[in-house]
Design a protein that fits this description.
binds zinc ion; 50% helix; two-stranded antiparallel ribbon; 4 helices
Length: 117
């Protein structure tokens, strides 16, 4: 879910969509990035402290929403690729479509149709 805007190459936090130009640091994970501010919020949440929720789309102006659209779409695509990689690894470990479907809360047939190419 690497939230990278394809047209500019700018990296974005996958949580708050702050660009690499707006945050102090971005930490990369498997398909995702998290910024320093979101990391601090997560540390507070882990310690049981209340944290503010991320502002919803209605709180942002149109230009900001348009700027975040491509990274959000890219993040969804990256998450789908990561999911497919996980299912592929499970199939190589001889995990059945029934088990995969159950783990996803769907049927064996639906899981097979979704992930077999
Ligand atoms: Zn962030």
């Amino acid at each position: 879910m690497a939230a990278k805007r394809p047209d500019t190459g700018t990296l974005y936090c996958s949580f708050c969509y702050g660009s690499e130009h707006e945050v102090k640091a971005l930490v990369a994970g498997p398909g995702v990035y998290i910024c320093d501010a979101c990391t601090e919020l997560s540390q507070r949440a882990i310690k049981g402290k209340k944290i503010p929720s991320f502002p919803g789309p209605a709180a942002l102006d149109a230009d900001r929403l348009l700027d975040r659209l491509a990274p959000a779409s890219f993040a969804v695509s990256a998450a789908e690729r990561s999911l497919r990689d996980q299912v592929g690894a499970l199939r190589q470990k001889n995990v059945t479509w029934e088990q995969i479907g159950a783990a996803l809360g769907t049927s064996r047939q639906a899981a097979h149709q979704r992930f077999s190419d």
